[in-house]
Each structure stands twice: as C-alpha cells, then as structure tokens.
Amino acid sequence: MHVVGVLAMDGVVAFDMAVPAQVFGSSTGDRRRPLYETRLCTFGGAVRTSEPFGAMRVETGWGLDDLAAADTLVIPGHWGFLEEPPGDVLEAVRAAAGRGARIASICAGAFLLAATGLLDGRRATTHWVYAAELARRHPAVEVDASVLFTDNGDLLTSAGVAAGIDLCLHLVRRDHGSAVAAETARRMVMSPQRDGGQAQFIRHADPRDPGAALQPVLAWMESNLHRPLSLGDIARQACVSVRTLTRRFRAQVGTTPLQWLLQARIRRAQHLLESTDLPVGRIAEVVGMGSPATLRAHFARVVGTSPQVYRATFRARP
Fold first, then answer.
1. How far apart are alpha carbons 69 and 79 in whole angstroms?
2. What percent of the chain stands above pLDDT 70?
3. Spatial separation of the C-alpha atoms in residues 174 and 108, rounded to whole Å
4. Within 10 Å of residue 312's Cβ, how many Cβ atoms?
5. For residues 200 and 254, is the Cβ–Cβ distance under 8 A?
6. Most exposed among 34, 52, 86, 274, judged by the fewest C-beta atoms under 10 Å?
7. pLDDT (tens digit, 9 = 90+) per residue, 32-43?
8. Residues 6+ away with beta carbon under 8 Å from 200
9. How many CB atoms lie under 10 A from the CB of residue 210?
10. How far apart are CA 122 and CA 150, in angstroms?
11. Separation of alpha carbons 219 and 241, rounded Å
C-alpha cells in the first residue's frame, strides 16, 4: 500500500495536517479497499497545533525516522514557518527526495521545502499572503501566486488552506485516475477539480452552485461539448454580450469561457478513455475536438501525457 507520511512540526496548522488523512483516507479502490496509509510523523510522538486557530496536542506512533518508509511526503504549514527549520528536518526531507519519494507542501509548508534547496529552479506556490516573502527569501524558486497548486512531477506545492485539498485530490487523480478522484471528492462533498487561481476562488462563490449566475450556461456548455462552440454562441446562450460574458467568467470562474470549455472537454475525454473502448478519433468528435491530432495536442498540454498512455494507465479493468 502507498504510504503517505505527514511531517508535522510544532505549531502545525491543524487543517493542513488533517487534509492528507481526509483525502487519502477517503480514496478507495473498486472493492472499497483503502489505497493509501497516512502516517503523522512528529518529534517525540506528539505535536501541538498552532495557537491562533485553537491549540491541540496530537499524539502519534510515528516519528521523524518513519519518514523513510513514506512513498509520498506531505509538509503542512506551521506557525513558525519564517524561522530557520531544524537541520535534522531538512536532512530528512532531502533524504526522502534522494530515495525517490514524492514530496508535496501545503500552504506555508513551501517555506520548509524551499529551505532544503529542492525547489531551486522549480515552479512553486504558497498562500497568496506569503508568496512575495517566499520569493524574496528564495530567489532561485519560481514563485507563482496565481495558481492553486504546482506539479513538478516529484515536487508539488499548494496555495493556502483549501488548496491543500485540491493538491491531494490531484495526487489521487495522478495515481488512480479521474474516476477515483471524483468519487473521493464526492465523499468529501468537494468539487473534483477547480479551475483558475487561488485568489479568484478565495473571493468568489463556486459558479457551479445552483444559485450562481453562470450555472445555467455552464450546464449548457457541458451538454454541448460535441459542438464547435464559439464565444458568440456562449454569449447568446447567456443572453449577454461577449465582453460581459468574459468579465463574468473571470470574476466567477477565474478563467475565460473558452479555457473553461477546453478543460471541460479534456475532463470528458479522460472519463471516456477510462470507461469506454471508443477509439481516440471518436472521442475527439464526442468532446468537440474535431480530430485526433487536436485532441492529442490539447490533452498532452493539459494532462501531461497522450490519450493512449492515459488509457493504458487508467482504463478500468474487470
């Protein structure tokens, strides 16, 4: 079983610490068997959570040495993230990377990960409040404050608070496909995949909510993915001008109408690749890409692999 080690420093943010256990613990296979084992690793078998959010003392049976068994290491934020991390903690993280473990940070946990030097030359994010400070302290890191998470393959970082859920669901999607990730999200009453950056989603309600202004047009777009929709088509369906439509999408969704449409088409293609034997050419038609070449180009850019490789990896088997 895939072991997830959560490195909890004293003053850890309770929400960040709990997110990996909640997400990975909610992920099950076809027979409802757990796919991950999550271990909270601390100094001396106990850790105190951060004071401003209600201090708690959490006891655990795993220590720093147990990180050696982790396939994925998650670093949550902690209240002393601006202080120099202990040397043995930095060495433990570097050692995990050296043996091939996947390492992910949540929120201000990016500061500890950056202090190891592993993020140098890599793209990273953190809570938007602290992004400028992360860039100032670690100029070799390419800090992007506009995204919910970054994925460098072996090193991942998330933005603040709830973005840790997005990151962990992304890891489940990488490991087991979009169907398992979607089922995990449903159990958590969470959107499987949020588009746009952290600032937009912190400040605005989910546009998929039945009461949101864009819900009818989003539903219409989802049901018409096979059609060659233009901005004008979408604006007419929404009964607004193209300029107003674009402004509303940026305000409520955090991206443009056509970018949202592309993401929806890719998600539909992923589902069909996982759940059907339809040839790639037919899937391209169903999702409105027109040709296999167009689907392959967009799929590789968004997902990071080809439709054929994705199907071979995640196709549901009896």
1. 26
2. 91
3. 23
4. 11
5. yes
6. 52
7. 889 999 999 998
8. 250, 251, 253, 254
9. 7
10. 9
11. 19
Residue with tokens 């600032």: 199
Q: Helices (DSSP H) in the chain: which residue ranges?
A: 14-25, 87-98, 109-115, 131-137, 163-176, 178-187, 198-203, 215-223, 231-238, 242-252, 257-275, 280-286, 292-303, 307-314
Tokens of 150: 């970054």
Helix axes 14-25, 163-176, angle to 10 degrees: 30
- Check whether 53 has a pLDDT greater than 80: no
Cα distances (angstroms) measured from residue 268 to each of 132, 148, 273, 287, 296? 37, 22, 9, 7, 14
The packing angle between helices 257-275 and 231-238, to 10°, is 100
Counting residues of the chain whose pLDDT is more than 90, the rounded percentage is: 65
Angle at 301 between CA 183 and CA 232, to 5 degrees: 85
| Per-chain mean pLDDT for the chain | 88
Alpha helices in 43-129, H assignment, sequence order? 87-98, 109-115
Instruction: Inform me whether the pLDDT recorded for 70 exceeds 90.
Output: yes
Q: Residues 139-174: pLDDT tens digits? A: 999 998 878 899 999 999 999 888 999 999 999 999
Rounded CA-CA distance 25/126 in Å is 24
Please report which helix (H) or strand (E) contains residue 3, including its range. Answer: strand 2-7
Per residue in 71-102, pLDDT tens? Answer: 999 999 999 999 999 999 999 999 999 999 99
The answer to whether the CB of 78 falls within 8 A of the CB of 40 is no
Query: Is the distance from CB of 95 to CB of 68 less than 8 angstroms?
Result: yes
Phi, psi of 23 (to 5 degrees): -70, -55
Scan for tokens 């997902």, then name that residue: 303
- Burial class from Cβ neighbours inside 10 Å (0-12, 13-18, 19+) for residue 279 reads exposed
